[in-house]
Write a structure and sequence with these properties.
The protein is α+β, with helices and mostly antiparallel strands. It is built from 13 helices and 4 strands.
Length: 270
């Protein structure tokens, strides 16, 4: 994400977090933002017009109001107007930013006093799908289902295992995925939910499933290394052969045998 897009996203997040109260309002705003994202995805001409640098910000805002004001509430409309009044280096950035804000609104809808495990539920869903190739294909656009069918299947898979808000976010990921990038989209959702809960997403990849004691030690290692509480996703990747890999953002600890072999081959080649 470029600096300009990040700045636009943060400005809209500040507005969203200021105006949304925990509960049904957050879910309603999230649904409206996802609806706007769907409209822009299906209407490239409208998306171009709303990001056209040849139009003044006032013109773009006026167009957005004419299209969406009768379909969304005041909070959503304020967010959309803020965004279309900004400069975008690429038109698709507007749509992806609106989707990111829809995720935020859904997370804000969850009452953490009643369900403090929302972020961990999303982390666990990400880990399950990342470790299960068949499920990953069925829930992505690499499978045979259309977006609505994929979302319905995701809903059935996770029904009763996660909160309704977590279930809707997972369904949204299955609906929106492009080019098979379901794992990446779920990881972004999980990382954002963890961050909003004052925690960090750590991905622990191992060749075989961890025992409970091993998982606890890995989480403690990550918390000591990065200095904050973590939600840990356990991903099984047989290609690692042995050892482990911990990833948080752009940083990692890699003790896997696969990497040791690669480094040995590189040294021999030199």
């Amino acid at each position: 994400m470029g600096a300009q897009q990040q700045s636009n996203l943060q400005a809209a997040r500040d507005l969203l977090h200021r105006d949304i109260k925990i509960g049904p309002q957050g879910e309603a705003v999230g649904a409206e933002l996802f609806g706007v994202y769907d409209t822009l995805s299906q209407s490239p001409r409208l998306l171009r017009a709303l990001t056209d640098p040849g139009r003044t910000p006032v013109d773009r805002v006026s167009l957005a109001e004419s299209v969406f004001s009768a379909r969304v509430g005041t909070v959503t409309m304020a967010v959309i107007c803020l965004l279309v009044g900004q400069h975008w280096s690429h038109q698709d950035q507007l749509g992806t930013t609106i989707r990111e804000l829809g995720m935020d609104a859904y997370v804000l809808a969850e009452d953490y006093e009643k369900n403090p495990d929302l972020s961990q539920q999303l982390v666990d869903a990400y880990a399950l799908i990342a470790s299960n190739r068949d499920l990953r294909i069925q829930l992505s656009d690499l499978g045979e289902g259309d977006p609505d069918q994929r979302a319905a299947l995701a809903g059935k898979v996770f029904e009763g295992h996660v909160s309704p808000i977590a279930q809707k976010l997972i369904m949204r990921a299955a609906h929106d995925v492009r080019y098979g990038h379901l794992v990446q989209l779920l990881r972004r959702m999980a990382a954002r939910a963890s961050d909003m809960n004052g925690r960090a997403l750590v991905v622990c990849s191992t060749a075989r499933p961890l025992t409970e004691a091993q998982a606890t030690r890995m989480a403690s290692l990550a918390e000591r290394k990065w200095g904050r509480p973590v939600d840990m996703a356990q991903v099984v990747d047989p290609s690692l052969i042995g050892g482990f890999r911990l990833d948080i953002g752009e940083e990692s600890i890699d003790t896997s045998i696969r990497t040791d072999i690669a480094m040995a081959r590189l040294a021999m080649a030199k």
